Amino acid sequence: MSTKKESFVKGTLILAAAALVARILGLAQRVPLEHLFNDIGNASFTQANNVYLLLLPLATAGIPSTLSKMVSERYALNRPHEAQQVYRAALIFAAVVGVVMSTILYIAAPYYAEYTKVPESTLAIRAIAPALLLFPAIAMMRGYFQGRNNMMAGGISQIIEQIARVSTAILLAFILLRQGYSNTWMAAGASFGSVLGSVGAFGVMLYYAMKMRRSEEQIALYESNEARLPLLGIYKDIFKLSIPIVLSSITVPVVNFIDTSFIVPLLSGRIGMEEATRALGIFGSRAQSIAGIPPVLSIALSTSLIPIISAAYARKDEQHLKRQVTLAMRISILTGTPIVLSLVVAAYSVNGLIFSSLDGSGIVAMLTLGTIFQITMMTTNSILLGMGKSRISMYYVLAGIIVKFASNFLFSQLFGIYGIIGSTALCFIVITLLNLRMLKKIIPFEILGKRWGGFSIAVLASAGIGYGLNEAGIMLTHLMPARLAFLITCLVVGAAVVIIYLVLLIVLGVLSSKEIAGYPRPLRKLLNPLMKLQPAHVRANE
Q: I need a surface site. Which of 239, 353, 390, 495 has the fewest CB within 10 A?
């Protein structure tokens, strides 16, 4: 049992680490591209990327996680022939949907670009379309390997895909710039990096597939005397499980797609076409890049608890379930908050440090601030999925997206781009509240209970001090090169916010030593030495 648990923990860590590396590489791509592109280039690349990121999970229809479950169950029941047939059915679906999706995207590109009032993005969208040919198959292979308890294959393919995508995107954009091509062509070159990324990932998956085939007895699909499963029956089983999962897990890509599709049409009448296109470029190349950082760690930590929640729910172990749900929520909020605060209060310095100008610091700050609700939404979504409540989760996501749509039109007219960003936060808040309401019906729990006051003080104090340090740091630009001043300011603000926040959480009793004992090991190592700062009277009240 312990070996099984160890391999599960190891697998979870491999996937979390791969997702973390892939996300960091994806973010790293945006910085050099932002320097190479003008407003049209940034807007075109943003649109192509967000259309692609929306279609990707739709093209796989949530099948990989369902496939993983079906394959592992059949191998556990010693029915490998059935597992192979399920896998083959998933690959057939992937091949068909890959061709259909990439063709539709290629044909629809000019119409979508025209509708969103960024006609220059047509080339970039068409350049990214062929990536959809291979990615459904890659996703199915990852799901199959996960079902066979081989997490390494999926993890390495993710990292190789991002390295190939990022390096070729930057290289192609740079070569096209040097050759004198326009930003429209440069954005297309950068978008084509995703196609080369898919080729790299597919190569890795093929290598692992051949390796697995050599290391085990060949299972003949057709020569077997066992009954062949009807293809339609397999698809019925797959889609029954997978469709609610995909619809509840595409919230962020859908929201990003809505924003990049409507920013120019909604704002052009208010601020003019040129300014609206510029706002879209800043939103996509800067704000979305920075806002993508806070969820990475907290989601990786909280989702590592999801299978434990799933097992506790299946066993009807209420005490353990309550403890794990509470822990997942606390970890996601407590680890996400200091990163959000650091980036929000230092938004001006972060913008000056890594991007080509200081424009749009307010947009970066506001979108990043809203990610705290993205974190709570994603964590509560994952917990509901772990409990098998994917259908309910799907309805709540649809409710949030309807709120997003309606508020986009209203708020954009009142507050411009900030109204659009505010409607995104509102969407995440609505989904979080609906999810929490459902979770509390299943199991009564408190996230922080009476400790919300101490948490609020820690947040306000660390944010206030961080903001003051950022304002002081900006003055350094008069004494030294601007980028060096911004670098020093970012490092000082980040360190100060995190340290002050952690110390106040401990001193005010928001964190207790008993609670920390249940945290993942990396967090325990960080927090245990700091627990000595906790006053004796606070410790006595635990």
A: 495
Tokens in use for 503? 């110390």
Q: Which residue has the higher pLDDT, 200 or 220?
A: 200
Phi, psi (5° rounding) for residue 214? -70, -35
Among residues 126, 115, 236, 254, the alpha carbon closest in space to that of 184 is found at 126
Terminal Cα-to-Cα distance of the chain (whole angstroms): 33
pLDDT digits (tens, 9 = 90+) for 123-141: 999 999 999 898 888 888 8
Q: How far apart are the C-alpha atoms of 213 and 153, rounded to whole Å? A: 14
Supply the Cα-derived Rg of the chain in whole angstroms: 24
Q: What span, in angstroms and rounded, lies between the C-alpha atoms of 293 and 23?
A: 8
How far lies 96's CA from each of 63, 82, 102, 128, 134, in Å? 14, 21, 10, 18, 11
Q: Model-level pTM?
A: 0.80
- Kindly state the average pLDDT of the residues 110-120: 89
The one-character DSSP state at 448 is: S
Burial (0-12, 13-18, 19+ Cβ within 10 Å), 301: buried
Residue 87 has pLDDT above 90, yes or no: no
* Tokens 């990003």, located at residue: 256
List, for residues 469-478, the tens digit of each pLDDT value.
999 999 988 8
Q: Are 54 and 257 in contact (CB under 8 A)?
A: yes
Q: Name every residue whose Cβ is closer than 8 Å to that of residue 475 and which is 6 or more positions away in sequence.
A: none
Burial class (CB in 10 A: 0-12, 13-18, 19+), 498: middle
**What integer pLDDT is reported at residue 358 of this predicted model?**
86
Can you tell me the distance from the alpha carbon of 510 to that of 497, in angstroms, rounded to the nearest whole number? 16
| DSSP structural state of residue 511 | S
Which bin fits 182, alpha (ψ -120 to 50), beta or left (φ > 0)? beta
Distance of alpha carbon 321 from alpha carbon 119, whole angstroms:
51
CA 411 to chain centre: 25
Q: Is it the case that residue 519 has pLDDT exceeding 70?
A: no
Q: Count the neighbouring beta carbons within 10 Å of the beta carbon of residue 274.
A: 11
Q: Which residues contact 364 (CB under 8 A, 6 or more apart)?
A: 282, 286, 287, 290, 291, 343, 347, 350, 351
Give how far Cα 299 sits from Cα of 96, 294, 295, Å: 33, 9, 6
What does the block give as tokens for 231?
A: 């293809």
Phi, psi values for residue 541, rounded to 5°: -85, 0
What distance in Å separates the CA atoms of residue 68 and residue 267, rounded to the nearest whole number? 44
What are the tens digits of pLDDT across the range 224-239? 445 577 777 777 777 7
CA distance linking residue 176 with residue 180, whole number of Å: 6
Q: How far apart are CA 126 and CA 107, in angstroms?
A: 8
Give the burial class of 532: count Cβ atoms within 10 A of its Cβ; 0-12 exposed, 13-18 middle, 19 or more buried: exposed
Longest dimension (CA), the chain: 81
Tell me what the mean pLDDT of segment 359-377 comes to. Answer: 92
